[in-house]
Amino acid sequence: MKHGPSSESAIPTVTGFSPGFAALGLEAPLLATLEMLGYEEPTPIQREAIPPLLAGRDLLGQAATGTGKTAAFALPMLQRIGHASRVSPSALVLVPTRELAIQVGEAAQRYGKELRVSVLPVYGGQAIGPQLHALKRGVDVIVATPGRALDHIRRGTLKLKEVKFVVLDEADEMLDMGFADDLDAILAGTPKAKQTALFSATIPQRIRAIAHRHLQDPIEITIAKEPVKAGTAPRVQQTAYIVARPHRAAALARVIDVAGANSALVFCRTRLEVDEVTAMLTGRGHRAEAIHGGMNQGQRDRVMQAFKAGQTELLVATDVAARGLDIPQVSHVINYDLPSSAEVYVHRIGRTGRAGREGAAITILDPREQRLLRTIEQHTKARVTVRPIPSVADLRAKQLDRVQAAVEQVLGDGSLDAFKHLVERISAHPPAEVAAAALKLLVRARGGERQEQEIPVIPVGQPEFGRPIRDARHSSGRVHSGSAGADRPPTGRTRQGGRAVEMARVYIGAGREAGIRPGDLVGAIAHEAKLNSNVIGAIEIEQRFSIVAVPASMASGIIEVLGRARIKGRRVPVRLFRE
Ligand code: AMP
Fold first, then answer.
1. pTM here?
2. Are 214 and 311 part of one and the same domain?
3. Does 446 reside within a domain?
4. Is residue 402 situated within a structural domain?
């Protein structure tokens, strides 16, 4: 997919709406919202999907998480239902997991703020009472997992007779989770004259079959498959750290501190993020400055001069702002967000490792975005090494290494007479003690004594890490996460980068008889324990109980919160499982 020429060069200004979004046909209220969110230009999938969806076409889109696909369907959906007469619900978005229902629901709410659109996430594991109440009151958009949507349809509390817009998001995951029949049943109750968009990271035959059954003359969009031209991808060391969303900012600070980046470009997707990240880094004692399209030319020039003169260590930028700039060679390019396409990624990392010098590209990414990383590897024909996020001990060790190197350099340079006199003045203490105290002061001055929190390591199953839980309903009840055919043992270890993660098994006193499905358990753990579903290992669902493998370090916390929570509406015993 190519970038439109109009938005390549123009840097949107503080006053005008992004010309890129306006050109796609979006109207003022949505443009104002995007401006407020700090989106500077549409991503490739948005550029391709928004115009046909606004024109009322059905759409089959191949796009992974991280490409901006939520806005690609949500913006046109909101504009179209805003124009139509209000019914409840006007739009239905089906997603595979509770986590996504919440995430997509929040995104739709955010995008629909100016249009005053009401959004209700509906998922299993959540108490049904408030859902019934909200459905009765009426909502514009429902974002639901298929199982719970069907529950409501059967109870007569969700009526889809007048729905105008349906989205099947992450359709391949929904099929993997065994929702094919549920999807057919749900869609059977919707009117024929509606608009449907189906998004899937891959489009195998079974997705085509669903599209064939439910989409009418769909426009099909795919992110271009052409690899980046040989030789254009810069040869730099590329590393990625997979971190759950709530820990992203801490992870950025950690990798910058560990890398000792002294002239780095930090890329963010939005203006808002640029400002937040700059404030966070400045607060930690870094010399960081922001550059984005919301700044005027004078401000941008001043920031660039300071960066070129070495007064600023970290330049935090959006792609649009960085595109037109003559940025000098930098030691590190850090992607706070994975860019929405391989082309943008290559463009970003091209700022380091120039003219035979060493360079490093570091990417922080959400577990759900791992697929996009793969796409980037395929496109660039270069390996991106996934590493566990450095621990506090790693950071401390790195800081001491750096102090040692700095001291050795000063020792090599000589000219220490004045300081030797100082040591003599403190001669009541042994010289080694004096040196240690001086080093402590140095470490403190460099922020090395700051309180740091451990960032949870996300276990990554190989080789197809990040894949969802597979369908259990028609099998023996035993399901596994991990790739098709590459089932993991229910306990033991999984690996992230080089770090093995010890797994434990948690017993949950509800099983098939209580209608438990893998999604309910994943959802409950992810939501109640505020964890990403990727930390969850194999799931076994038996008649009366279930067993879920989780990282041993998180087991007691998970047991505690699940013990207090409701699963499928009721309290169930939860404890550590022993053979
Ligand atoms: P998604 O692929 O829908 O999960 O979106 C990934 C992330 O990109 C989300 O955090 C969005 O807020 C962000 N995003 C989506 N579209 C844009 C855009 N045009 N500019 C900047 N950020 C965006």
1. 0.69
2. no
3. no
4. yes
Distance between CA atoms of residues 165 and 91, nearest Å: 5
Mean pLDDT, rounded, for 185-214: 94
Out of 277, 340, 375, mutate this one to test ligand 1's pocket (max ligand atoms within 8 Å of CB): namely 340
pLDDT bucket at 224, cuts 50 / 70 / 90: low
Q: Convert the pLDDT of each residue in 150-182 to its tens digit.
A: 999 999 999 999 999 999 999 998 998 889 999
81-136: per-residue pLDDT in tens? 998 888 889 999 999 988 899 999 999 999 999 999 999 999 988 888 888 899 99
Do 167 and 42 lie in one domain? The reply is yes
Q: Cβ distance 60 to 198 under 8 Å?
A: yes
Q: For residue 66, give the ligand 1 atom closest to its CA.
A: 2
pLDDT tens for each residue of 378-415: 888 888 888 889 999 999 999 899 889 889 988 988 88
Contact 271, 38 (CB under 8 A): yes
Mean of pLDDT values over 455-471: 46
Q: Which of the two residues, 487 and 382, has the higher pLDDT score?
A: 382
Among 269, 344, 348, residue to substitute to test ligand 1 (most atoms within 8 Å of Cβ):
269
Distance between Cα 159 and ligand 1 center (Å): 31
Task: Examine residue 232 and state whether it is found in any structural domain, yes or no.
Answer: no
Residue nearest to atom 12 of ligand 1 (CA): 68
Beta strands in 399-497 (DSSP E): 478-479, 492-496
Indicate the number of domains in the chain.
4
Give me the helix-helix angle, 146-155 and 128-137, nearest 10°.
Answer: 70
Question: Rounded to an integer, what distance in angstroms lies between the CA atom of residue 31 and that of residue 55?
Answer: 18
Least confident stretch, 183-192, 476-485, 506-515? 476-485
pLDDT of residue 486: 27
Q: Pairing relation of β-strands 574-576 and 499-508?
A: antiparallel
- State residue 491's pLDDT score: 41
* Ligand 1 pocket residues where CB is under 6 Å: 39, 42-43, 46, 65-71, 269-270
β-bridge partners, 359: none
Token pair 């306990």 in the structure block, residue: 491
Residue 242 sits in the same domain as residue 214: no
**Domain C-terminal end among 188, 222, 256:** 222
Range of the domain at 384: 237-390
Q: Is residue 431 part of a domain?
A: yes
C-alpha–C-alpha distance, residues 317 and 266, integer Å: 6
β-bridge partners, 199: 61
Q: Which of 331, 362, 390 is the last residue of a domain?
A: 390
Half-sphere exposure of residue 107, counting CA atoms within 13 Å on the CB side? 17
- What pairs with residue 315 in β-bridges? 265, 289
Work out the average pLDDT over 264-274. 94
